[in-house]
UniProtKB/TrEMBL annotation:
This is Uncharacterized protein. Keywords: Hydrolase, Metal-binding, Nucleus, Zinc. SUPFAM superfamilies: AF0104/ALDC/Ptd012-like. It is found in: Nucleus. One of its GO terms (cellular component) is nucleus. Monomer. It comes from the Eukaryota. Its main location: nucleus. Transmembrane segments: none annotated. InterPro entries: C11orf54_DUF1907. PANTHER family: ESTER HYDROLASE C11ORF54 (PTHR13204:SF1), PTD012 PROTEIN (PTHR13204). One of its GO terms (molecular function) is zinc ion binding.
Length: 313
C-alpha cells in the first residue's frame, strides 16, 4: 500500500434509542411492503449461513467510515488512491474492529477494476471473509472470489463495530406494494423525515432472502472521461442475480457537510454471484431480512478535494 498522509475527520452522530428507530422504520416500511416487522432483538450469530460474516455480532463501539470517494474514479481514475483495510481499522479508533461494507476492489492485484464486499475482523480472533466481484472477460458473467491481502482502491463505505453480540434492529419485510424497490433507500428516507439535519447512520447486513435483485459490476477503467450519468450507465455491467444475497454496508440520513456517499451496499453469496445492490426486481416474491445497529461516529478518511459530480447515491 502507498504510504501517504491521509486526513481524517471525525464527527459525532445522533444516536437515538434502538426502540425509537424501530418505530420509525416500521412506519417507513409499511408504506412499501405488505408484511413488515421491525424489532429490537438479540443479534443472531452472523458467522453462520446464510450470512457468513467474520464476526458474530454488530455491537460494542460503533462507527461508519467513508474512505476516498467517487471523484477518485470519475471522470478519470486516480490510480494513486490505494488503501488498506488494516490501516482503516486503526484509523477508526475501535479495538479489534469488525468492518463490513462496500468499496472498490484491489485492481492493482486483481489486474482489473472490481467491486469489494468488505467482511473482515481484526484482533486476536481475526478473520477475513472479504469478497470481490469482477466481470469475466470471456463472457461478461460474474466472477466472485476472495482477494489476496487487505488492500483496496478508490473508495469504501464501511460499518465498524467490535463484532460483539448484543441488541440490534431486526427488519423483516416481504411483498413490495409500491414503485420503490430499493430496500435501504426506504430506511434512509424514513430516518431523514424523522430526524432532519441530525445525522443518523445505520449499518450492518441485509439479506435478499427470496426473489431477485438488480446488481452491477464495474467494468475496467476507461481512458475517456466518465463525465455523465449516461456514460456511467453504459460502462457498468448489470445483472439480475438470485437470492439469497448477503448485502453489507451503511446508510446515513443526513450528510453533516462531509461530502458523503449517503448509502452504499454490496452483496455476495454462496452461489457465486455478487456486486453493487440497486433494488429488487421481483416485488411480489421478494423477502428481506436485515440486522442493523446505529453508529456513534463517522470518520471521513482522505476526502477528495473536489466534490461528487455523478454517481453519488
Amino acid at each position: 500500500m502507498t504510504d501517504r498522509q491521509m486526513p481524517v475527520q471525525r464527527v459525532s452522530l445522533h444516536v437515538p434509542p434502538l426502540n425509537e428507530v424501530a418505530t420509525v422504520l416500521q412506519n417507513a416500511y409499511e408504506k412499501h411492503y405488505s408484511s413488515v416487522s421491525v424489532n429490537v432483538v438479540d443479534c443472531p450469530d452472523l458467522t453462520q449461513s446464510p450470512f457468513n460474516l467474520a464476526a458474530p455480532g454488530l455491537c460494542g463501539k460503533t462507527a461508519v467510515t467513508d474512505v476516498g470517494g467517487v471523484p477518485n474514479l470519475h471522470p478519470l481514475v486516480d490510480r494513486s488512491k490505494i488503501y488498506s483495510l488494516d490501516r482503516v481499522a486503526r484509523q477508526v479508533e475501535i479495538d479489534d474492529v469488525f468492518l463490513v461494507g462496500a468499496g472498490a476492489g484491489p485492481w492493482q492485484t486483481e489486474g482489473v477494476n472490481c467491486e469489494m464486499v468488505t467482511n473482515i475482523k481484526t484482533g486476536a480472533d481475526a478473520k477475513n471473509n472479504t469478497h470481490i466481484s469482477k466481470v469475466d472477460p470471456s463472457d461478461g458473467s460474474c466472477i466472485l472470489k476472495k482477494p489476496e491481502g487487505t488492500d483496496f482502491a478508490l473508495m469504501a463505505n464501511l460499518f465498524c463495530s467490535q463484532g460483539k453480540p448484543g441488541k440490534v434492529l431486526e427488519i423483516k419485510v416481504r411483498c413490495g406494494t409500491s414503485k420503490v424497490r430499493n430496500f435501504m433507500n426506504v430506511a434512509r428516507l424514513g430516518l431523514q423525515a424523522q430526524y432532519g439535519d441530525k445525522p443518523v447512520a445505520l449499518g450492518g447486513t441485509f439479506l435478499v432472502e427470496k426473489g431477485k435483485a438488480h446488481i452491477h459490476i464495474m467494468n475496467d477503467f476507461l481512458t475517456t472521461p466518465l463525465d455523465s450519468d449516461e456514460k456511467v450507465e453504459k460502462w457498468l455491467n448489470f445483472y439480475e442475480m438470485s437470492s439469497p444475497l448477503v448485502c453489507l454496508g451503511y446508510l446515513i440520513s443526513h450528510d453533516p457537510d462531509l461530502d458523503l456517499r449517503i448509502e452504499h451496499f454490496h452483496c455476495f453469496s454462496e452461489h457465486g454471484e455478487g456486486g453493487h445492490y440497486h433494488w429488487d426486481t421481483t416485488p411480489q416474491e421478494v423477502e428481506y431480512r436485515a440486522y442493523f445497529n446505529v453508529a456513534e461516529n463517522i470518520y471521513r478518511i482522505d476526502r477528495p478535494t473536489v466534490s461528487h459530480q455523478i454517481g453519488r447515491d
